Amino acid sequence: MILRMPHYYKAFRCIADKCRDNCCIGWEIDIDEETACTYEGAGGEFGERLRKNIAVGETVSFILGENERCPFLNSRNLCDIILNMGEESLCYICREHPRYYEWYGDIKEGGVGLACEEAARLILGSKAPFSYYETEIEEEPDCYPEMELFHLLEMAREAIISHLSDESMGIKQRLRDIVLYGKRLQDNLDSGEYSLPLIERAKPFKNEDMCEIFRFMASLEPINREWEGYLREKKALSEKIPKGFEYDSKVSRYLSNIAVYFIWRYFMKGVFEGEILSAVVLSAVSTAFIGRLYECEAYEGKELTLELCAERARLFSKELEYSEENVSALHDSAYNEFYPK
Q1: For the whole prediction, is pTM greater than 0.85?
Q2: Staple 112 to which of 66, 96, 119, 154, CB 3.0 to 4.6 Å?
Q3: Rounded-to-integer distance, Cα 49 and Cα 57, Å
């Protein structure tokens, strides 16, 4: 099997105790069956500690402690399981986070998620044009797609990523262009025509109102209650920002990298159900919304540093991407709230 990963993946390293939003705090951590058996057979005092802090029900999971901390996250914010048993003893979710994967027959694609602060810094801060590398791995093929459509979508994704990376035009224009392209590609596929349209310059859509996007985002189920207050605050600021704001080239690059991240992660999934436009809209709306958050920060007089921009993107990603319901709602919005008009 071939594994495809973004060019920045090799640079990713978990920053462990230096992480400000530790993934071992505030999340229910399920334990896969193989690891649960390992923990069940672990000997000594640490084995006893493992079993006392694991709940067995419909799923096997760690019993979270005060402030929803994993019981094995010690006072130095290091993992006691790694310290006592080695990193290979981690359960699947702890071992792989924030990595994600998708399977397309004998091709497996993946990357690191924007909701991780170190991954967000890598994604936004990348100055090289987006590319991916391939390695051979020992894994059985899975979920074969219709290969003609798969190869067509590969070419479409390459065209979209290339367009998003073209800094000769503003990022807002690039986002409009890919939405129009996604609509035309979807129309072609719906009519049984397996051909790629050209990416053309799109006029502003009538439904680009940021108030509507804020309203939609506020309707989603929040993972972190603090997000609700943050959203209300930024919505009020958004309504005060005068028209005509343009990002400097640095922030525009951050946003194009974010848009490419969403396209890389979600676009090819449409090969199984033929839903292409929804992934393009997800990318465009998410990027435009994050960009508006940046505008709000700038309106308050804050410098749009990589650190600040990565943190705001991470905050959004955590709220959207770690809820299947929220991701589905944004996909569905491609055909109601955000359908290009």
Answers
A1: yes
A2: 119
A3: 18
Question: What Cα–Cα distance (Å) separates residue 93 from each residue in 17, 23, 24, 99, 118?
Answer: 18, 10, 11, 9, 17
Q: Are 116 and 313 in contact (CB under 8 A)?
A: no
Q: Is the peptide bond before 98 cis (omega within 30 degrees of 0)?
A: yes
Contacts of residue 190, Cβ cutoff 8 Å, sequence gap at least 6: 274
Is the CB of residue 108 less than 8 Å from the CB of residue 102?
A: yes
Strand partners, 54: 62
* 335 DSSP assignment: T
Place of tokens 């994993």: 70
Cα radius of gyration rounded to whole Å, the chain = 21
* E-state strands within the chain: 2-6, 54-56, 60-62, 99-104, 107-112, 132-136
> What's the Cα-to-Cα distance from 122 to each of 102, 307, 309, 315, 319, rounded to whole Å?
21, 11, 12, 15, 20
pLDDT tens track for 203-260? 988 767 788 889 999 898 888 878 888 999 999 999 888 877 766 778 999 999 999 9
H runs (alpha helix) in 67-207 = 80-85, 92-96, 117-125, 147-164, 171-190
Q: Which residues pair with 6 in a beta bridge?
A: 132
